[in-house]
Amino acid sequence: MIGYVTVGTNDLARAAKFYDALAAEMNTPRMMEFETFIAWGTPGGPAGIAATKPYDGQAATVGNGVMVALEAKDKEQVDRLYAIALANGGTDEGAPGPRGEGFYAGYFRDPDGNKLNAFVMG
Predict the structure, then answer these.
(1) Over the stretch 76-100, which tens digit does the pLDDT of each residue have?
(2) By the 8 A CB rule, do 7 and 63 touch?
(3) Which of 11, 55, 107, 110 is the most exposed place for a label (fewest CB within 10 A)?
(4) What CATH number is associated with residue 98?
């Protein structure tokens, strides 16, 4: 159902470093790049993500209650994505581990404060 997700940034170069690292682990290339945004994804593939400076020229802010979930292939990839996020300027929001029956996830924020997680079901 979801085609893509965008997160706001006030520093596109910093956001690019963070998302390039996550995308490399997920084997997902940049698919669009302009002066104010970069999008990662695969045409015809699963939903992608973009980091963008707000169109209205105002500062990017974090949406309270908003989170982007990145589907990992296994628990080990969840662990790697979480570690990659922290190594590239992200902050901890909950170390990887089981979150109820059949759900494993690690939570983090990007350098702009946008909340994400990496998860796997099963």
Answers:
(1) 999 999 999 999 999 999 999 999 8
(2) no
(3) 55
(4) 3.10.180.10
| Domains held by the chain: number | 1
Give, for 22, the enclosing helix (H) or strand (E): helix 12-25
Is residue 60 in a domain?
no
Under the banding of pLDDT at 50, 70 and 90, the label for residue 3 is confident
Parent domain of 43: 4-54+66-121
DSSP 37-55: EEEE--TTSS-EEEEE--T
Instruction: Confirm whether 36 is domain-assigned.
Output: yes
Q: Report the half-sphere exposure of 20 (CA within 13 A, side-chain side).
A: 11
Decide if 74 contacts 120 (C-beta within 8 A).
Answer: yes
Residue 111 lies in a domain: yes
pTM to 2 decimals?
0.93
